[in-house]
Known about the structure:
2 copies of one chain form a homodimer. Chain A is of the alpha/beta class.
Amino acid sequence: MSDEQLNAFFEPMGVVVIGASRDENKLGFGVARNLLASGYQGRVALVNQKGGELFGHPIIQSLDQIGFPVDLGIVVVPAQYVPETLIACSQKSIRSIIVISGGFREAGKEGAVLEEVCRKIAIENGLRILGPNCIGVIDTHAPLDTTFIQPPMPSPGEIAFISQSGALGAAMVDWARGEGFSFSQVVSMGNQIDVSEADMLVLAARSDHTSVITLYLESIQNGPAFLRKVSSVTPRKPVIALKVGRSRAGQLAASSHTGALAGKNNAYEAAFRKSGVIVAETTKELFEWAKMLAWTPSLPKSSNVAVLTNAGGPGVTAADAIAKARLTMAEYSASTVDALTTLLPAAASVGNPVDMLASASPDIYAQCLNILLLDPNVDMVLVIAPPPPMFKSIDVAKAISKVISRSEKPVVVSFMGSTLVKDAVNYLRKKKIPEYRFPEQAVRTLAAMRNYAEIRERDYSVPLIPAGKLDIGRALEIINKNLDIPGFLPAKDAERVMGYSGLPVVPLSFAESISEAEEIAEKMGYPVAMKIASTKLSHKTDFGGVYLNLKSADDVRNAFHRLHERVEKERLADEVDGVFLQRMIKGGQEVIVGAVRDPVFGPMLMFGSGGVEVEGLKDVQFSLIPPSNHEIEYLLESTWAGRKLGGFRNFGKADLKSVKEILAHLSSLMLAIPEIKEVEINPVIVLEEGMGAFAVDSRILV
Amino acid sequence: MSDEQLNAFFEPMGVVVIGASRDENKLGFGVARNLLASGYQGRVALVNQKGGELFGHPIIQSLDQIGFPVDLGIVVVPAQYVPETLIACSQKSIRSIIVISGGFREAGKEGAVLEEVCRKIAIENGLRILGPNCIGVIDTHAPLDTTFIQPPMPSPGEIAFISQSGALGAAMVDWARGEGFSFSQVVSMGNQIDVSEADMLVLAARSDHTSVITLYLESIQNGPAFLRKVSSVTPRKPVIALKVGRSRAGQLAASSHTGALAGKNNAYEAAFRKSGVIVAETTKELFEWAKMLAWTPSLPKSSNVAVLTNAGGPGVTAADAIAKARLTMAEYSASTVDALTTLLPAAASVGNPVDMLASASPDIYAQCLNILLLDPNVDMVLVIAPPPPMFKSIDVAKAISKVISRSEKPVVVSFMGSTLVKDAVNYLRKKKIPEYRFPEQAVRTLAAMRNYAEIRERDYSVPLIPAGKLDIGRALEIINKNLDIPGFLPAKDAERVMGYSGLPVVPLSFAESISEAEEIAEKMGYPVAMKIASTKLSHKTDFGGVYLNLKSADDVRNAFHRLHERVEKERLADEVDGVFLQRMIKGGQEVIVGAVRDPVFGPMLMFGSGGVEVEGLKDVQFSLIPPSNHEIEYLLESTWAGRKLGGFRNFGKADLKSVKEILAHLSSLMLAIPEIKEVEINPVIVLEEGMGAFAVDSRILV
């Protein structure tokens, strides 16, 4: 039932416009105009209390007068009449409704109350509502246009655009027209009281006409639903998102380094990574990449790009852009070099970029392109063509388009210029061959292609935790005991929770006096660390509350003494319980591992360079929990801390397996005990391969 | 004289084309065609042995037949005839010559020889040569067009473009035409056997018609000349450069961290910073920024941007871009908020961005813009206009252009769309009001404006070294002694050179035996560090050759013993001379300071995070020597290591003054003794304010 209701947004049996208007200044006029002009094949009813006629179509005064089945309602009445209109629709079994009207949450408190009323009506009556405060949907293939944006309606295209900004939808429809590509569907989400961007994305992806889905996002309300729905689409069709509002994104709880570093942006980025969404940096790129992915049927096998040009400068520019986009310049096979050498003049360059020189004819362009595409070391080709002095750009376009149409490898073209390359550009657009004015843009689209190929190759499986490693019951016992105590868990309790979660911890031993400390240290074996025992001081090192590398009973006594003096001086005796002693682990590399909860996407893991400079160095990355194997690899490969574990200077290859286990166990803990708000282990000491990794200092916030 | 010769490239008294051709497939045809069609006001001679007539103009067979004064020669004869043509020109007192002909260095070894012959002829005969292998110059105001690029010639504009790629020049002339802006001068540099990009830049800057100079650079041959000439222009007119070939840029000498991190890119970036050049990331941006700077007479006072929009989405997008570009969202004064509140509907947003809602009329656009420009807290305004549903974009353009033309603050406009905003866009272009399709592009141009304002505000003065601090004579003595010894200077010698350069060093004391070491340590006072004394082992820590924090005679003995064992085990006795003892400095922050020599720009300073992870963290920046006060601030502010010196966690504000002195002294040393190839001080320990900074471990390569 719900599915049918969603389908009605793009393929309704019949449509009614409630609030259709004869006043050209009203949105109800534009909606009726666009719907009637769209070529929609079903029947259309226009409703307005005033009655009359519009575009030769009668305006009826009430829903009761509709004489044919209607399953999609478009509501353009003033906000205060929307609730009763929804009920009227429900009574007529119109259960899919687009509310164009504004004046809801976006207009202030009263609007927000009205919006809540509408939401309740929708739930009670089983209505699916798109909006309110949206511009509706366009399906260029149905065809259907429920919006009021300025005509003409976009021509049929391949890209679905789901936008949380209506104005952007309208602007991009027009911009795309000028750029020679178009949309399959355009959806404006409005205030999203019911239907979500993820619902519409799944729906759009079902259309055979849609090859790529683009998203303009300001915020996501239901993170888990977004992840689930979008993840079901990305293995089949590319999804590209532009997420805005980054500059306003606040921080999450900032009690620990992890909290201070984990902004909302990190959560969105992690969510896009988890669900295989390609992330665009700018509005323009969103569509430039979409055009490339829509018009290029096959994905690149790897990241090797061949550049073909008739001039040096743009070739070097492209090579720079390729390096910056983390693609690689293809190294040609010997037969390619031979073939190019035979074909081109002596002064030409047969390396990469291939510089055919300004004298290159359309035929030479085509032949060289063909040679490059045959090379197994070439995964993609960028063809660059500033206006050739001796030939017409259109002839180059014609010659290469034949080769490109046959190619099973992605090819992108950069005709540089404007009036001199106009015909060539239009020719390629008609052939649906992706082209961009500048080599840099073209390279970025190749990177998007490669990005999507890599997304499809990822290992999305989640590593399993061996049974018996996690003792949730006992961990929960400790958590519950501390639920009402503000701040971090006492250090010893934190250590226990870590232990029950299967994390290898270096145990802390509590001592209240010098003699006790000395005794413990002697048993433990030197060197030891001494840490102030306090649940109230959050940064122990700042206070000078940590003594490392104590090598003898003397050292222990001295440290205890100095600590005691310090506590007395700062009048902190009440805050301090005693000291902890901990066996020092020799050698190894230090990393930080943490976890927080994002309000939208839930628990999130952090990994990176630890120590006291965590927040300064910012060498950390985030991943949603539970992390897949790919996400764990990402954490390790995208941070210097992680890369270093692979071996660095006098440090051998570290025990990556143990680090991965710690990440997996911490994830399980966060999933199992929602009461835990934040965990931070700083440092985790990672020894050489096979020697393990150990949580030395763990903090838990409940 | 030389000046006159350079002037002749843009304002010749008379021009001769040598190699003018009647064959449409030859470049000599295109050059004659463009020159004659350009509207050039002087007299033109065409020379070709074959004689005849072209465009109603006689072709003479020899230079001797020219009957009027000519000071600019354009040579389009085959490469092998260029030398004799140059001599012939010289004999006719034609001393400014553009060699269009290709077939020189770019074509292989023989061409390189020919090029060298031409260079010698130029020197011997006092000729100034642009090229060879270039497409010549265009001056749209003179007017003059010596190129063969496809007509029409660009209309008169404000931007000079000096390009090391001819094809790019041609492509950009055409692209600019489509974008509605144009050039004052276009220069293609070719192989640059004589006239350099810096010569042409100075020349172009002299033209009243030129407001902005753009540079496309692949490489610079004479770094100091570039710095000197460009620095003379940037305080008066903005210079924007695109430097390509970054992906190919090799590393400098890699004996130290400093060497390994100092690629050619760093040198170019440092050179642009020193000379006040704005650096563009892409070809498109180069010109987008130039248009903004050319058409906007006044620079922003600070970085506060107001955003005016009729839709939320593009406003949020702009806010993101503003944060990313390190500009700030303006905070409006109370009177601005009042005025906007009075003017706009209740549901509008009067914060920043100002969202007037889709109903905003052209008049409302203009009134709001006016209000924002009057606010003293607003330095720049971005106006965003997706196609308004109820109004025409052209009317918005007309309304706001009146306000913008009167404004003394930079305003940039983003009409989003294509066909629906075409008239509006064309209107603004005619009024020379900068406009871009996307808010993100527009924001980047504002950042370029602010960047140029900041360039003009910089403190370019170089800090003076107090007399007597630098004892070059004695430093040089030590350097000379080591000139023939490969590798780094012996540690003790390096320490001495640092000392003579006025750097505060922590002295090393050499010991050959345990007892000697113990004795020295006792005198020195604990804790001490022990370092292996060897000129042959480069990374002492990797070898385990450094023991820190030795607190007693026992510790010293143990360390010596372990070191000895290690040396024996690795059979390195011959490589090791003994040990150094050094007093440990307690507390403080560690940074790295280094210096290398770039082959183009000369000595270069490095500053950043030190330790063994220097190359992994890459928290370092470079500056050309001698650094100005601004460049020293840059080193300190653009690195985490530098920012941290301002105070961080339990570290108080560090002694920045002493760090600056170390940078200045090291610079003086590099300038005074060219024999020094590399210096690296890792670490410099920086104590709290007033307590000094100390070079703990210095290495010098000669």
